[in-house]
Amino acid sequence: MTDQITLEEALELVDFEPCPEGWRVKNVNGSVYGDVLCNVWGDVGGTINGRRWKFIEPLKEELKRLIQEGADKDEILEALNQLEDSDD
Asked: How many CA atoms lie within 13 A of 76 on its CB side?
């Protein structure tokens, strides 16, 4: 086994796309071992340290998002009540 993989092997594992800042990773076609040192948009599957991954929006962020998106009064009141009942 060599210390480097070929470009063809790398392109089987990772899809790239151009962006204004240069190139970025679009999809990882396998498991990530180690850290993700930036933001992740899109679907994340699998596990983290053996536990299923799940997105949980903090209550303060949810309330802020609902207000910015122009949610109806009932949705905003429900989020506000959950925030009041929490330790956040």
From this structure: 10
In single-letter form, the type of residue at position 32 comes to V
- Predicted confidence (pLDDT) per residue in 18-64, tens digit: 999 999 888 888 888 888 888 877 777 777 778 887 778 888 999 99
d(CA 87, CA 41): 28
d(CA 21, CA 39): 15
Cβ neighbour number for residue 32 with a 10 Å cutoff: 11
Task: Identify whether the C-beta of residue 45 lies closer than 8 Å to the C-beta of residue 53.
Answer: yes
- pTM for this prediction: 0.45
Task: Write out the two tokens for 33.
Answer: 């071992």
Q: Could you tell me which residues are beta bridge partners of residue 19?
A: 22
Alpha helices, DSSP H only, in the chain?
A: 7-13, 59-68, 73-85
